[in-house]
Amino acid sequence: MVSYLQVENLTKSFGDLVLFEGISFGVAQGQRIGLIAKNGSGKTTLLNILSGKEGYDGGRISFRNDLRVGYLEQSPHYPENLSVIEACFFHGNAVVNLIKEYEKCMETPGNPGLDDLLVRMEEVKAWDYERKAKQILSQLKIRDFDQKVGQLSGGQLKRVALANVLITEPDLLILDEPTNHLDLDMVEWLEEYLGRSTLSLLMVTHDRYFLDLVCSEIMEIDNKRIYSYKGNYSYYLEKRQERVDAANAEIARANNLYRTELEWMRRMPQARGHKARYREEAFYDLEKVAKQRMHDSNMKLDVKASYIGSKIFEAEHLCKRFGELKILDDFSYIFFRYEKMGIVGNNGTGKSTFIKILMGLEKPDSGRLDIGETVRFGYYSQDGLTFDEQMKVIDVITDIAEVIELGNGKRLTASQFLQHFLFAPETQHSYVYKLSGGERRRLYLCTVLMRSPNFLVLDEPTNDLDIVTLQVLEEYLQSFKGCVIVVSHDRYFMDKVVDHLLVFNGQGDIRDFPGSYSDYRAWKEAKAEHDRLEEKPKEEKVQRVRPNNAKRRMTFKERKEFERLEQEIAALELEKKNIEDALCSGMLGADELTEKSKRLSSLNDELDEKGMRWLELGEIENM
Description:
The chain has about 625 residues and is of the alpha/beta class. The chain has four domains: about 230 residues, Rossmann fold (3-Layer(aba) Sandwich); about 50 residues, no CATH class; about 210 residues, P-loop containing nucleotide triphosphate hydrolases (Rossmann fold); about 70 residues.
């Protein structure tokens, strides 16, 4: 295989904290590698080093000459005043730089070097760059190309950044948590896109289904070293456990021998000069092995839930809307004791708003919510990370409680409690600003659970948490003696934790599905296939078969239609935005409201129809 990337003896530290030391690995053509490690082990730092955004202490990094590398950051940033389409030109790449060079040439008197630029533009198909950008953005359900970046949600911004990377058609794609903030439809679209591509991948993700389906190799950073496993995530779990068991056995043997050697080293000080030098050196090597801690330090969440009565909450005829956007439409539900509910739906369908209404942070327009007297909420929200950066980790916990009651007379000090959450003593006395994103999430989870809630409401708890933490959280929730509501795009997590789903389809359409997310997905696919067969006409027209090797080109008429559709879609998007602004203004009369609402509905239908035709023609162009 052709080598794309070679890393040799790479070392990185921050002060006295060593993330990894002397690690070596490579990425070859066609390899699809998933990178796994506990939070704070340096996953994102390693990707930033490979992308040139961060330096390193020692070692060597070599890319193949002329290799096109695409990097999707975990939290992409763009100037807020840029439009969506401008954002696709913001981060420089070879094609974008060539386009800028061409534009500069055209502005220079005499157009020096124009002939050479035209040849190079033709070679890399730079003329089609904007069209390709719009095509991928449309597939990612971003159709308002003139919308400002500052107005985008986290999920929309992630999709724009993803489009920015995919447009360049890189040879090697480096992805840092690509599924964070993407809804389930987009995660599955990306899964399918990467599955049928020939890209080489190096990826960090906590989404285990995504990892299993996209990657064929796993690379793990553990105790500052790197380990490789030639298989998918399931294979990795099996082989990693074998490695941990073997290491534990080696440490146990070293400990037994260490005690014997330690006794020998302590015998009569006057005899030390007669000891064999080689045995002393061997003793210190043995001491290093004996003091290792390879017992796979699992986080044990033994926090007990407080008593919860039979009455949990009852929602009666709840309604909520923002302008023409319906969130809840005459919604009623009775929540039962020990129920574990998952909430799924595309971004913007109202999942987080529903949670905020339940928590009393948002008022419904009408209806009633009756919550039982014994209910004690524990709320883990998307925007709950509001720690004082200058506080020490231990102080964050002791500000809530010095001692945590576990029930049955058991209790833990704040320091012991943090150790259950994989915060070593030295980390506990470190400052919050030094924690990684995942470690902050883990600390936040700690502050929620330590209050002994009996009703957990978790809004996107899986973002930024490492797989080790997720596994233990899953086990805790499965045995949790209370109620749970989870909003998550992590399919594996949902399958392990919830009993049934509340599916938000948008515009107040909410359905209760009795099963896991995988059950729901299988049902959804079966229903779509059934509907397709029902709509299929009995007599289909015979289509002319084209040889596999014959290239389909746009006809003149199709090309004109393609150009016209671009203009029409832009005009419809503008009209849609103006109508939405008018509907939200509160200045319209009843007749105008009705008229504009009807027009908005037909506009959406037109946009879908024209958008699909535009994509069809774009596919022909790319054949």
